[in-house]
Specification:
Blueprint (H helix, E strand, L loop, with lengths): L2 E8 L2 E7 L1 E7 L4 E7 L3 E6 L2 E5 L3 H13 L7 E6 L4 H6 L7 E6 L2 H10 L1 H4 L7 E5 L2 H5 L6 E7 L13 H10 E12 L4 H17 L2 E8 L7 E8 L10 H5 L10 H7 L4 H13 L1
Parallel strand pairs: 7-8, 7-10, 8-9, 10-11
Antiparallel strand pairs: 1-2, 3-4, 4-5, 5-6, 11-13, 12-13
């Protein structure tokens, strides 16, 4: 019997993946967690029916939330990852010897345990001595932090359900306070293509634009994301992602990547007209 996994994007569109076998299924305090093995995408994780990463394309997301800010900020030492329980973002950050500590704040213990068991090559980063894992709500964790971090990466899933608080005005304000005077925040901005996702994109950009003096959006192609087109947000107290970008400094580190390049960095901020219009409309409301 053939088994297919369907992720519904809208009432009229979905992604369907042929499954070889199911590796895990469980219900945590926060969400349903399923892990499947497939020929096309390898092993992949779905949370509440939505694919969050696959073996085949996780490197794209993890590289783009890590190397873009790291190629701009000249001296990152302390990093906070909100979410990131799979270890992928921590793995990319550990490529930089200058980083002294990485705090990972993840709500779901089961999710981390599943990733450690089924994706050890990714989750191994969580065992590094520079990495500390806190099982806590990201917003609660941030509330008493003031000028602690050089970089905050919001690697949470979607602005719905138990992670909804990580996409609020209060959350972005708390990130601002927790960053040092030249700190950067990077966050997943979602896909602007389908209507429900577009509304979330609009809301996020409006809130961040109000909270930070510098707010820009960049893009990547990620096959298992809705429509295959994904946006990221870059928010900063000081550094501009293009004007302060130092390609030669980054190249001198000789970091081996599969997606990110110095040329791609600049191109990622060149957005389609419909996305530019969407962002400009929200900036006028801010």
């Amino acid at each position: 019997m053939e088994i297919w996994f369907d992720e519904l994007y809208t009432d009229h569109a979905k992604l369907s993946v042929h499954i070889d076998k199911q590796l895990f299924s469980g219900e945590s305090e926060y969400q349903r967690i399923d892990v499947f093995d497939s020929q096309e995408y390898g092993k992949f994780v779905a949370l509440d029916g939505d694919i969050v990463f696959s073996e085949k394309d996780e490197f794209i997301y993890d590289e783009m939330v890590t190397h873009v800010p790291m190629a701009v900020h000249p001296d990152v030492k302390k990093v906070l990852i909100i979410g990131g329980g799979d270890g992928g973002v921590a793995r990319e950050l550990l490529r930089y010897e200058s980083i002294e500590s990485i705090d990972v704040v993840e709500t779901d213990v089961m999710f981390v345990d599943v990733c450690r068991d089924i994706f050890p090559e990714i989750a191994v980063a969580l065992e590094d001595p520079k990495v500390r894992v806190y099982y806590d709500d990201g917003l609660r964790f941030l509330r008493n932090k003031h000028e602690v971090y050089d970089l905050i990466i919001n690697d949470s899933t979607d602005p719905f359900g138990h992670t909804e608080g990580l996409f609020t005005k209060e959350f972005y304000g708390s990130c601002y306070k927790a960053l040092k005077s030249d700190g950067i925040m990077v966050y997943q901005h979602g896909s602007p293509f389908y209507k429900e996702d577009e509304m979330a994109c609009r809301s996020m950009h409006r809130k961040v634009f109000r909270s930070f003096p510098i707010s820009r959006v960049y893009q990547a192609y990620i096959p298992t994301c809705p429509s295959g087109y994904w946006l990221f947000g870059f928010a900063s107290k000081k550094y501009h992602p293009l004007n302060d970008f130092e390609p030669e400094r980054w190249k001198s580190l000789h970091i081996n990547t599969r997606y990110y390049t110095a040329n791609l960095h600049q191109g990622a901020f060149m957005l389609p007209k419909f996305v530019e219009d969407l962002l400009e409309q929200e900036e006028k409301k801010a």
